[in-house]
Amino acid sequence: MKKDELKNQYRINEQIRVPEVRLVSDGGAEVMSVRAALDLARQEGVDLVEISPNAKPPVCRLIDYSKFLYQQKKRQKEMKAKQVKIEVKEIRFGPQTDDHDYNFKLKHAIEFLKAGNKVRAYVFFRGRSILFKEQGEVLLLRFANDLEEYAKVESMPSLEGKKMFLYLSPKKAGQAKKSQQAIDKEKAETKRKEEEKAKQEEKAMQNSVFANAKISAEDLAKLKTEE
To answer: Which residues of 96-116 are buried (b: 16+ CB within 10 A; e: fewer)?
Structure first.
């Protein structure tokens, strides 16, 4: 909002042309004539500002209008700064992209999505490579599946001229769903740790039994010596 538009958004002092207003403050609210409200404003050295013109009667406050405009402008600036600018990042494939190039572009896509950007992935078919459009579709579906933890599909692969597009948008925080590949990996890691723990416990038990057996043998030998 431009400065002039913000300044003209509220009526103040003599611009308020109604018989009475509801004057609100930290202490409560009171209905009074505009004249009485203006007198109070002059006494306190502030302005009578109409903040809710459609109320009956209109709602006003006694405030320093210049300071009020500054605070409003500052608040709008802060809100604008907090707004996340969403960009659309492109990832380009060929119909016969090798695994190394695929993994490199997958990594970049994850970075884009984590940053809150959308991803437009496409396969470009040059010349007779359009004959491999099914292969391009499989590649894009694999790409969507590998990004399941970070993105949701906005539109499935579709051919537009010599390009087949796939549109992905980032999942909101707290909504990320782990891919089946990640789930299987976690299960395998948990199983490995459990098996390792069981082996360590078994080894500790064997050592304990061996130590006890050794002590018993030593005690027996000692008793024979004493006899």
So the answer is: ebeeeeeeebbeebbebbeee
Helix or strand or coil: residue 2? Answer: coil
- Predicted TM-score (pTM) of the model is 0.43
The conformational region for residue 169 under phi > 0 = left, psi -120 to 50 = alpha, else beta, is beta
pLDDT in tens, the chain (227 residues): 444 555 667 888 999 989 999 999 888 888 999 999 999 999 999 999 998 888 889 999 999 998 888 888 888 888 877 666 678 899 999 888 899 999 999 999 999 999 889 999 999 988 877 777 888 899 999 999 999 999 999 988 998 888 999 999 998 754 444 555 666 667 777 777 878 877 777 777 666 655 555 555 565 555 555 55
